[in-house]
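tool_call predict_complex ligand=flavin-adenine dinucleotide
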Amino acid sequence: MKVTEYLANSNGPIISLEILPPTKGQSIDSIYAHLDPLMEFKPSFVNVTYHRAEQVYKKRADGNFERVEIRKRPGTVGICAAIMNKYKVEAIPHLICGGFSKEETENALIDLHFLGVKNVLALRGDAAANEKFFTAHPSGHRYAEDLVKQVIGLNNGNYLEEDIMEGVKTDFCIGVAGYPEKHFEAPNLDTDIYYLKRKVELGAGYIVSQMFFNNAHYYNYINRCRENGINVPIIPGLKPLTSKRQLTMIPSIFNVEVPVDLYTEMMKAKDAAACDKVGEEWLYEQCKDLLKNNAPVLHFYTLGKPQVVYNVLKRLF
Ligand code: FAD
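tool_result ok
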């Protein structure tokens, strides 16, 4: 079912999880081990992230270096199929512009359509590891809105090859990303919301937010979006912060604030278990408050910390 249909028909909070494909060479069992316990809470969606290929230099036998492209976390489409098959839940692949030509994107969309995937999250992706700024694939997309346009095109039966007449129409529900504390490249929140609105006007049906640790940012964002005429659901993205290292790493990577109370409690923690507990408490209080304020979905970035998310869900439901 489409995310928008779930939201329209639900009368209770919806749980959604986000996972990363394992690194190449690892078994899909690592995904199952991650998800199995969380299935107790009947999540409606499992998002699977997409990772662009990276350029690395490999030494050849003759001593020279050769630039090769490697994809460290392949398998998003296959993992979506495996999750739908094993757990009977909707899997939502992330699609990114970075590193993909329009044709590769179209082919991925065709695979997803054949698999019965109903939802996709359309994203730009970040700059490649060896680049400071995002550069588009020579025959790919520059912004997420261009990717949204392509998916909408395919929903209308428009394929890249113009001689495909009356092509099968896909029927994807499209989600896009939003940033309560603004995207790190955006000059200000208003400009960022302006571009967010364009994605919605093109046909995105819902927004998933970047993580935040202060719910006030999310509530303010909803108000600002509504004032600007963005009326689709805005799903809060939630991540447990569970180490002292993340206190500085998360703000620098994701451009999000760590509130002083969370910082202070984490600094007092004596060991890893105590850090997990601080993260759990914070996330639990965030969720309680979001539920009280009628958040449509709780979307958890479970990445690497399924036990903390499990503990929070156990306390909530
Ligand atoms: P865009 O909407 O294209 O916006 C990027 C920047 O450009 C913003 O500053 C925006 O204001 C500006 N902008 C947008 N359109 C225009 C325009 N037409 N002209 C000028 N400026 C414009 N990354 C991955 O690689 N894989 C993932 O699986 C993944 N999953 C994510 C899931 C969520 C919920 C979120 C919030 C992020 C995820 N990301 C992922 C990270 C995301 O790819 C980055 O944050 C990326 O830098 C921006 O993506 P976007 O889709 O928001 O881009």
